[in-house]
Amino acid sequence: MENQLQVFNDPLSSIPEEPVVFEHIEIDSSFQADLILIQIDEFQEQISEIIDLYEKEAAYLKEWTEERVKKLTQHMDFYKHNLEIWMLQKEKRSISLPHGKAYFRKQPFKVEIINEDKLIDNGFKRIIASVDKKKLLEHFKSSGEIVDGCDIVKPDEKFYVKTNSQYKGNSNGSH
């Protein structure tokens, strides 16, 4: 089945569907390099359009889902409430019928925290230990020592491209 949104707004129309074999582009001048930057910028704009459309559609679907689920939950709660009243009136703890079961079940005790500080002072606390990576890195930078139990990794350089539209306020990717 064809996606109607894709038919309506297809920024990928310039990209063929079949797998593409990318071949090295020979760049002989700064003019050709600038043309490649223009192409990169166009791809970034298309990516931004796709992401914007996705975010709008996702927000719309989330709102639609929440609204519909809320209405259905209200109806379901109404029916559950009426069934509960009927069971209380008939003094039944449980029923088993052809289309389901309904029953009352005792619930376990729950802890409700009223004054956290008092409880901590009385010894009801957990201590969770974790490694302080920032402190380890500071120690390495100041002393050059690599503490036993860790290793210091220097990542490779990253290559970034910024097109002119990114300087104008668009932030659609930096790689």
Low-confidence stretches: none
Number of domains: 1
Supply Rg.
Answer: 31 Å
Number of helical segments with 4 or more residues: 5
Describe the structure.
- This protein has 175 residues and is mainly alpha-helical.
- The protein has one domain.
- The chain is 49% helix and 5% strand.
- It contains five helices and two strands; from the N terminus they run ααββααα.
- A hairpin with a 2-residue loop joins strand 1 and strand 2.
- The longest helix has 60 residues.
- It starts with a helix and ends in an 8-residue tail after the last helix.
- The model has no long low-confidence stretch (mean pLDDT 85).
Question: Main attributes?
Answer:
single chain; 175 residues; mainly alpha; two-stranded antiparallel ribbon; flat
Offer a quick outline of the entry.
With 175 residues, the protein is mainly alpha-helical. It is 49% helix and 5% strand.
